[in-house]
């Protein structure tokens, strides 16, 4: 398989954690490719499906009525075996046997590492499209699914605010994002949270307690603290215990969890998903073979895949103060 080969057949897969908007990307890739006379295979369950030869041919109808659906119709998975070179050799052979000229990978930085290895070692042209709710990939300001996850969390926090206010309570609401604080910070600003605890920040209990007491003095009867889950999901329980022990502040914990991964994608995720899918085919037709479609300064661009294979926390930390200033 040579890089300059004409693109007649492509395959695409979704890998790692699923995110709302992946279906928009699948639809866009499929329809753009078919419009260019390119045959399209969807590979089910990410790299695991690639190694197990789980291919389905996609046509314009197979991606109908999915633009509004969360998750991924191709399913996703984690596949540690793909980190081994002999399995990537096997994958290259399977792609070759199917006559696949290029592979499009929708996923996070781990999935991109797999795609990069496939290109570098096995000479398979690859394009990466960032799909993860965490918004934690280097080289792009936006990942598909982030906006929907934020919206879902905002709606949940608004509901919890109702009960917190009615029962005079402090709530610690833990949001997803692993080591990235992107979701926490945006949700914190958008819900008027009294505090936002970032993933790697040492918790300043004194500061939290002072803010709650200050609020109480001016008649505030409830507080919302948004906690980025960080490396250890569930850390809100520890924080709640320390607040009680050190400052006699009682709090309730709500871990939003996987609800943030599901649901109908927002306009942003649908729009960027559609745009990035279309651009991935255009990139392949222009002979790009180791690239990613990213968003920079609100514009979608095609950049080297090596820009995007690291984790990076895009939380706009300069806005941490806003949540606090506005919630006095
Ligand atoms: P994400 O893509 O969301 O970051 P993971 O980090 O779990 O999620 O990666 C998804 C999959 O990508 C892994 O299960 C594995 O199949 C593949 N992968 C991750 N890292 C590598 C690597 N260093 N080399 C090859 N494949 C990798």
Overview of this structure, please?
The protein has 328 residues and is of the alpha/beta class. The chain has 2 domains: 9-145 and 265-308, Rossmann fold (3-Layer(aba) Sandwich), CATH 3.40.50; 147-261, Phosphofructokinase domain (Rossmann fold). It contains 10 helices and 11 strands. It has helices spanning 22-35, 46-51, 85-97, 109-122, 146-166, 182-191, 205-217, 235-247, 267-285, 320-326; strands at 9-14, 39-43, 55-58, 102-107, 126-130, 170-175, 195-197, 223-228, 251-255, 290-296, 299-304. The protein has a 7-stranded mixed beta sheet with strand order 3-2-1-4-5-10-11, sandwiched between helices. It has a 4-stranded parallel beta sheet with strand order 7-8-6-9, with helices on both faces. The model has no long low-confidence stretch (mean pLDDT 94). Adenosine-5'-diphosphate (ADP) binds at residues 15-17, 47, 78-80, 82-83, 107-111, 113-114, 117, 132.
Rg on CA atoms, Å: 22 Å
- Sheet with most strands: strand arrangement: 3-2-1-4-5-10-11
Ligand names: adenosine-5'-diphosphate
- Shape category: elongated
Q: Kindly, what is the distance between the CA atoms of the first and last residues, rounded to a whole number of angstroms?
A: 62 Å
Mean pLDDT figure: 94
- Report the CATH architecture of the largest domain: 3-Layer(aba) Sandwich
Structural class: alpha/beta
Helix content: 25-40%
| Low-pLDDT segments | none
How much β-strand is present in the residues? 15-25%
**Which topology of the largest domain does CATH recognise?**
Rossmann fold
Total strand segments: 11
CATH class of the largest domain: Alpha Beta
Total domains: 2
Biggest sheet descriptor: 7 strands, mixed
| Structure annotation, total helices | 10
Element-level helix/strand string: EHEHEHEHEHEHEHEHEHEEH
């Amino acid at each position: 398989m040579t890089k300059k080969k004409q693109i007649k057949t492509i395959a695409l897969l979704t890998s790692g954690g699923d995110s709302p908007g992946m279906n928009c990307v699948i639809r866009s890739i499929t329809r753009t490719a078919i419009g260019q006379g390119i045959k399209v295979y969807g590979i089910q369950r990410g790299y695991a499906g690639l190694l197990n030869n789980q291919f389905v041919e996609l046509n314009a109808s197979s991606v109908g009525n999915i633009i509004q659906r969360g998750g991924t119709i191709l399913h996703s998975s984690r596949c540690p075996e793909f980190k081994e070179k002999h399995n990537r050799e096997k994958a290259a052979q399977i792609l070759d046997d199917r006559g696949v000229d290029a592979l499009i990978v929708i996923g996070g930085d781990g999935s991109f590492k797999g795609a990069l290895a496939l290109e570098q070692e096995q000479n398979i042209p690859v394009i990466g499209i960032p799909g993860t709710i965490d918004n934690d990939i280097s080289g792009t300001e936006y990942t598909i699914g982030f906006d929907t996850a934020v919206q879902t969390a905002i709606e949940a926090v608004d509901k919890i605010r109702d009960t917190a206010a009615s029962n005079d309570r402090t709530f610690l609401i833990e949001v997803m994002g692993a080591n990235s604080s992107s979701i926490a910070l945006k949700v914190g600003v958008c819900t008027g949270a009294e505090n936002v605890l970032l993933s790697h920040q040492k918790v300043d209990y004194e500061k939290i307690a002072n803010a709650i007491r200050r609020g109480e003095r001016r008649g505030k009867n409830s507080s919302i603290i948004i906690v980025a889950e960080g490396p250890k999901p569930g850390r809100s329980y520890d924080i709640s215990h320390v607040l009680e022990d050190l400052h006699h502040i009682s709090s309730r914990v709500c871990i939003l969890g996987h609800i943030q991964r599901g649901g109908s994608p927002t306009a942003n995720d649908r729009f960027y998903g559609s745009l990035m899918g279309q651009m991935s085919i255009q990139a392949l037709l222009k002979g790009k073979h180791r690239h990613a479609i990213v968003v920079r300064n609100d514009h979608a661009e095609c950049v080297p895949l090596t820009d995007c294979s690291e984790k990076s926390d895009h939380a706009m930390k300069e806005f941490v103060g806003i949540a606090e200033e506005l919630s006095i």
